[in-house]
Amino acid sequence: MSILLGAIADDFTGATDLANTLVGQGMPTLQSIGVPDPGFSADDAAAVVVSLKSRTIPAADAIKKSLAALKWLQSRGAKQIFFKYCSTFDSTDNGNIGCVADALMEAMDVPFTIVCPAYPINQRTIYKGYLYVGDTLLNESGMKDHPLTPMTDANLVRVLSRQTGHDVGLIDITTVEQGATAIQNRFKELIENGIGYAVVDAIKDKDLKEIGKASTKLKLITGGAGIALALPENFRNVGLLPQGTAIPLPSVKGRAAILAGSCSITTRQQVANAESKLPTHFLDPMNLSEQTSDDIASTLAWVDKQSFEKPLLIYSSADPNVVTQAQQKHGLEAAGKLVEHAMALIARGLVERGVRRLVVAGGETAGAVVLALGITGLKIGPEIDPGVPWTETVNEPRLALALKSGNFGKPDFFTKALDMLK
Ligand code: ADP
Fold first, then answer.
1. Number of helices and strands in the chain (H, E)
2. Using CA positions, which residue lies closest to atom 27 of ligand 1?
3. Protein residue with least CA distance to atom 10, ligand 1
4. What is the whole-number distance in angstroms between the Cα of residue 332 and the centre of ligand 1?
5. Which of 81, 138, 293, 390 has its CA 20 to 30 A from that of 303?
6. Model confidence over 252-310: pLDDT tens digits?
7. Atom 14 in ligand 1: residue holding the nearest Cα
8. Which one-letter DSSP state was computed for residue 398?
C-alpha cells in the first residue's frame, strides 16, 4: 500500500508532535527514526513522519538528509510532502529552513509552497507575517536568547527571505478569513508573479483548517505541527482515507517499567505520585562514574528482586540542589550525559529482563533510550495526555513505548499510561 502523506521533520520531538496531531485526526501514522532503510515497512500507515536531527547541523548535511528522506517517501508513493519545522521557526540566516525547503522544491519540481508555523493551541500565531509567542513578538520572547537559533526578527517574510533564493510573499489574515477559495486565488496570484513562498497568517485553528483545505493540491507544504490538523481531512474528502479509522493501543504484553530522567517540576510531581504505588529505585548520579558500571549493575540487581507483575519505577529526577551537586561533581554537561548513558543501559537491561511496556520521561533521556534500544520506527497510538501518545516499535522486540518530554502530562501520568494498556 502506498502512503498518502510523507513528512520530513527537523527534530525528534517535533516529529512526534506532528505524528500525534495526524493520529488525532484519524490518520494512521508511523514515525521513523532517521531516514528509513529501503526495507522499512509502512504497511497500514497512511502517513510516515521521518524524524531527522537536522535543525542545527550544517546546511549541506540538512539538505542531504532531507532529500534522502524525500526520496524514500516518494518511493512509497507519498501524494503530498510536508516539511515540518518548529512553531518558533528555529533557524538562522544560514538555514536550515529556507535551504531545505529550496532543495525540496527543486527536487520535486514545484514552483511554490506555503510557510505556516502557526500553532494556536500552543500560542504560536502569525499576524501580518509577524510570529507571536503568546502576547509577545517572537524576537521579544525567550527565543531571542536561544543558544543555537536565536530569533531576533519576528517578521517571517524577512527571516525567510534571508535564507532562500526565492521571493517570499504574504497571505494575510484578511484573505485567510475569507476562506479556502480566497486563499487559493492568492496562491495563483503569487505563482503568476514568480513568488516561491507564501508566509500565511493564522490566529485560530479555523484559519489553519482553511489554509489546509486550500493547500490540498500543493505537492509540498511547509509548517509546524498545527497546520497538520487540516491535512487528513483533505485525503478523506477525496475518498483516500477512510472515515472513522480507529487507532489501536499497542497490543504488547510483558513486564512494565518507567524510567524518569527529567528533573522538571512536572516530572518530579509524577514521580512523587507514582512512588507510593510502585516499587521504586533512585539512580543517584553521585554514584555514577565513567569508569565503572557498578551502579547500573546494582540497579538491575534490584530489578531482578522485584515481582514481574508490578510496574517498576527507576528515576534520577531530583530537585535543583541535588542536580547542582551532581553537576559540581561531574561537570555541567558531563553529569547529564552520564545519567542519559546510564538510563540507556538500564533500558537495555530492562528489555533483556522481559520489559515490553516502557514509559520514559525526559526528551534527551528518551532520545538516548531510543538509540540504545536500536528502535527504527514507532507506530503512533492513542494519546495518554495532551501531546504524548502510546507508541509501538516497528522492529523486534516489539515494545509499547510512551516517550514524554519533561513538562508534559498530568500528575498521575505514569500509572494512567500503564493502566490504559491493562
Ligand atoms: P526534559 O525533557 O525535562 O528537558 P531531559 O531528559 O531532556 O528532560 O533532560 C534532563 C537532563 O538532566 C538529562 O541530560 C539527564 O541525564 C539529566 N539528569 C537527570 N537526572 C539528573 C540528576 N539527578 N542530576 C544531574 N543531571 C540529571
1. 14, 18
2. 336
3. 262
4. 11
5. 390
6. 999 999 999 999 999 999 999 999 999 999 999 999 988 888 899 999 999 999 999 99
7. 336
8. P
CA-closest residue to ligand 1 atom 19: 261
Show the cell assigned to 130. Answer: 509577524
Q: What residues flank ligand 1, with Cβ below 6 Å?
A: 261-264, 285, 316-318, 322-323, 326-327, 335-336, 339-340, 362-365, 405-406
| Residue whose CA lies nearest to ligand 1 atom number 13 | 336
Give the residue, out of 13, 259, 263, with the most ligand 1 atoms within 8 A of its beta carbon, to mutate for a pocket test: 263
Q: Which atom of ligand 1 is nearest to the CA of 338?
A: 16
Which residues, 6 or more positions from 306, have their beta carbon under 8 angstroms from its beta carbon?
279, 312
Which residue's entry shows cell 516499535?
A: 393
Identify whether the C-beta of residue 257 lies closer than 8 Å to the C-beta of residue 314. yes
Q: Which three cell numbers stand for residue 100?
A: 531545505
Say whether 136 sits in a helix, a strand or coil.
strand
For residues 47 and 7, what is the distance between their CA atoms, to the nearest angstrom? 8
HEC secondary structure over 258-294: EEECCCCHHHHHHHHHHHCCCCEEECCHHHCCCCCCH
Residue of minimum CA distance from atom 25 in ligand 1: 323
User: CA-to-CA distance for 407 and 361, rounded, in angstroms?
Assistant: 9
Give the three cell numbers for residue 295.
551502579
Which atom from ligand 1 is nearest to the alpha carbon of 283?
Answer: 23
| Largest pairwise CA distance in the chain | 71
- Determine contact, residues 23/30, Cβ cutoff 8 Å: no
Quote the distance between the C-alpha of residue 165 and its chain's center: 28
Q: How far apart are the first and last CA of the chain?
A: 31
- For the record, the C-alpha cell of 265 comes out as 517540576
Q: What is the pLDDT of residues 171-222, one digit of tens each?
A: 999 999 999 999 999 999 999 999 999 999 999 999 999 999 999 999 999 9
Q: How far apart are CA 370 and CA 203, in angstroms?
A: 35
Residue type, 89: F
